[in-house]
Amino acid sequence: MAEIITVDDPDDPRLRDYTGLTDVELRRRREPAEGLFIAEGEKVIRRARHAGYEMRSMLLSAKWVDVMRDVIDEVPAPVYAVSADLAERVTGYHVHRGALASMQRKPLPPAAELLAGARRIAVMEAVNDHTNIGAIFRSAAALGMDAVLLSPDCADPLYRRSVKVSMGAVFSVPYARLESWPRDLAVVREAGFKLLALTPAEGAVALDEAVPQDLERVALMLGAEGGGLTPGALRAADEWVRIPMAHGVDSLNVGAAAAVAFYAVTTSRPE
Questions:
Q1: Cβ atoms within 10 Å, residue 244
Q2: Parallel, antiparallel, or unpaired for β 99-104 and 36-40?
Q3: Cα distance between residue 16 and residue 10, in whole Å
Q4: What pLDDT score does 269 carry?
Q5: Contact indicator for 205, 240 with CB cutoff of 8 Å
Q6: Cβ atoms of residues 205 and 261 within 8 Å
Q7: What pLDDT is stored for residue 1 in this prediction?
């Protein structure tokens, strides 16, 4: 059973995991280096635990102690009970959901390990907006993608905003980070995947035409908002594909495009 500790000093060193959560640059450097991430809200905390992440501590406002009682009883990590005002002073924002947990990261698996048992994967290049990362992971989980691969410069899926937007779906879809881009796309092709680059560029084939029912393994490549996939990534692809647009619209937000494309490639999955 966890120990519930009432804290009334925002400078208490025991709250260090939660300090400055709105400082994006600080947290982007600090969290991976220290092997932690922040789960926000009851559902996300429970999903992180269900996915096997070890809890370092919880930060709860008073009314959330009872709500999280079963977790408190099961987990030996300390629980810091604080006022809403103190939580805001520590984190830098009003903690609407009243419950935060500091969780221990797991080592990422090698890309080859994920590819071995997958048939439909997403490959993201330089997607560095945390909201888009979270939305893409949520769609990947909901629509049955098997895994996600990230280029070295993609944003952190376990950053608080990504986790929150995904509603914890980042815990459901296994992912790995490629070390060399775009060279390591060769690893994906060698595992038997057809690399499809999602782009509105002229010459791209309609997605439903490019993914026949008997295509065993598909890797769908997604680029950053605005710029899309780089020339190097496009050259590495086996085929360029597009989502047909109407009413003069040239493209969708990458999060929306990912959802449409994931549906297209998973419904074409061989039985």
A1: 9
A2: antiparallel
A3: 9
A4: 83
A5: yes
A6: no
A7: 66
Cβ atoms of 247 and 131 within 8 Å: the answer is no
Dihedral (C-alpha) 63, 68, 73, 79: value to the nearest 10 degrees? Answer: -60
The terminus-to-terminus CA distance of the chain in angstroms comes to 46
Give the list of residues 6+ apart from residue 238 with CB closer than 8 angstroms, or none. Answer: 189, 194, 195, 196
The residue type found at 44 is V
Are residues 7 and 32 in contact, defined by beta-carbon separation less than 8 angstroms?
no
Residue 49 in 3-state DSSP?
Answer: helix
If the chain, 271 residues long, is cut into consecutive pieces of 10 residues, what is the mean pLDDT of each piece? 89 97 94 97 95 97 92 95 95 89 97 95 97 98 98 96 96 97 96 96 90 88 94 96 91 94 90 72
Q: Which amino acid is at 67?
A: V
Q: Which residues pair with 147 in a beta bridge?
A: 121
Predicted TM-score (pTM) above 0.90:
yes
Backbone phi and psi for residue 198, each to the nearest 5 degrees, phi listed first: -80, 115
pLDDT of residue 211: 84
Q: Which residue has tokens 């939305």?
A: 135
Q: Give me 140's structure tokens.
A: 């990947």
DSSP helix/strand/coil, 87: helix
